[in-house]
Each structure stands twice: as structure tokens, then as C-alpha cells.
Amino acid sequence: METNEQSQHLSSRRSFLLKGGAAVGAASLGAGGLLLEPSEALAKKGGLTKGDAAILRFLAAAEILETDIWQQYNELAGIQDAEVPGGSGNPDYTEAVAVLDEDMDQYIHDNTDDEISHAAFINAYLAAHGAETVNLDKFRTLPSSQATGAQQIGRLTNLMQLTINTSFWTRYRSDSLNPDFGDVLPNAVPGLATGQHPAIPRTDADLAPPDHLQAIANTAGFHFAWIEQGGTSLYAELAQRVTHNEVLRILLSIGGTEIILIMPEPTIFLDRKFPIVSIIRPTETDGAAMGALNAFTADGLFIGQSPEFFAAAAGLAKAADAARHGKDD
Ligand SMILES: [Fe+2]
């Protein structure tokens, strides 16, 4: 039963992303349960290394930011229930997002639930090992959408002025180019890569005319895939820098759930002398955390954030990027 549910969920993600691809042309429209004991394996080894803790902290921050993003989508276009409370739904926007995939409300709800669990787990794991945890609450200062359905609270991220890099799509379709080789892939939707586009209705005035609302929903659709492909690379990149097996297990286990099911075309990997292979891209480790942070910033997610926020986020990223596999400090 559960397997069946799972496979239905997977196939719905798959079909959305496929339809997302087909829509490329058209879219130019515009800690309760804290772990009480440090896990045995790490206790024997004397706790987390500095690098492992730094990587986990950066990932905790990334998950908190992702939670903030998905929460905003869920309040307006997700399933409203006690599992992911907060909003009351916006029927017009929900319908426009459902044009991309009829299960999109479920997809948004489940992603939000996943991100909440990722952030809570990683912070609880850090705490259980006596390491500093991540709390970004003081940076919840950005405005909420004024449209029907949204909660009126301070946000960490801005979804109303996005500039979306859609080269993730072409990157996963190319059999001869890979960012790990320094290749630059073109945007699938050049219109989204310049200017600032709302991915959620800013007020109820954005709910009409239908073409305007659909353009907003389409922007969200591309943003959903942008978030997930970013997380997919981030976990694969940072996993190569961790030291303890258990931390590697966490990165592989959580990272696996971020993986986008866009049925990649095989491409070049490690060296051009090898045959092409179907893989995550990029996975080069140099500057992976800072790269993710820069991508979030370029996406417009932090428009309006304070200099203190940027300093805190850069500090977390720098520390994570300084981690090296096997450096037991
Ligand atoms: Fe996540």
C-alpha cells in the first residue's frame, strides 16, 4: 500500500517535470524529539569533526531556507492540513499551479513536510553531538504575500521578485556538456533569467487576468525544479568532504530525497575519455556551499535581507567549504 502510494508520488513528480519541459515554450508568458544520546559510532570516535559539523550546519541552514520557501508555496497552493499548518489556500492560484500537474498540491505539501523534517533532524543531530545548531529566526523579516491564503508572518525568503536560472534543464539534457568541466549551459526559459518575476500572487490583484496568474504559476513550476536540482548537487558535493561514515549516511539518505526525477540524459563525467553516464551534475566539491548560497542570492530569494543575514550565511558556507574528508580535527 505504502509502496503503491510512493510510486504514485514518484510518477507524479516525474510527470510534472516532463510536462515542465514541454511547457518551456509556453512559459515565456511572461526538535521536539531531540536525540538524547550521541549515536554510538560517533561517540566512540569522540564526536563530530569540525568539518562535519560545519557541513551539517550549512545544510541545516539550507533546509531552514528551503522550508521557508516551500511553506510559502504550501500556504497558497498546497494541501491545507495539520501536518503542514499555517495557510488557508488560494483556490485560483492552486488551480493555475494544477495546470502544470494535477497532483501539484500534494507535491508542494509533501516537499514542505520533507524540508521541515530535514531541518529538524540535522539540528537535533548536531545538538546530540554537542555541536552548535542553526537558528535563523531573527532573520524572518521579509514580507508575506498579501493574497488570500497566506499567513501574515515574517519570512526568510522572497518569492515575489525572482530571477530564475533555468540552465538546470538544458544541463540535464546535454550529453556533451557538464558544469564540472566549466561548461556553461543556456537557459531553457531566457525570459526568467532576467528581470524580477513573482512566483506567488503578491495580492489578490495578481489573480487576474488568467494569463497573468498562469505566468506566475509557471514561474513557480520552474522554481520548484530549480530548488530541487540545487539541493541534489549540494548534497552530492558536500558528501565528498565529510569524514565520519554516519555523517556520510545522513548526507546520502537526505540527499537522495532531493534528487530530481527528470530522467537525465547521460553526459560526460570525471574525464572525457570515459563513456557518457547518467549522473547528478554538477558534483565538483570546490566552493560547493558558497556556490549554493550565491545561487540562492542570484535567484532573488534574499532581496530585502539584512547585511547581518548575508554575513551569517556566508560564514556558514565558508566553514562548510573548508571541510575536507578525513581531516579528523
Ligand atoms: Fe531538504
Question: Can you give a write-up of this model?
Answer:
With 329 residues, this protein is an all-alpha fold. It has one domain (2-321). The protein contains 10 helices and no strands. The chain has helices spanning 2-22, 40-45, 50-77, 91-98, 104-128, 167-171, 210-239, 245-258, 288-298, 307-321. Helix 7 runs antiparallel to helix 8 (245-258) and helix 9 (288-298) runs antiparallel to helix 10. The longest helix has 30 residues, at 210-239. The chain is globular. The chain starts with a helix and ends in an 8-residue tail after the last helix. Mean pLDDT is 87; it is low at 1-36. Bound molecules: fe (ii) ion (FE2). Fe (ii) ion (FE2) binds at residues 63, 66, 114-115, 118, 231, 258.
What is this structure's SSE topology?
Elements: H1 2-22, H2 40-45, H3 50-77, H4 91-98, H5 104-128, H6 167-171, H7 210-239, H8 245-258, H9 288-298, H10 307-321
Helix pairs in contact: 3-5, 3-7, 3-10, 4-7, 7-8, 7-9, 9-10
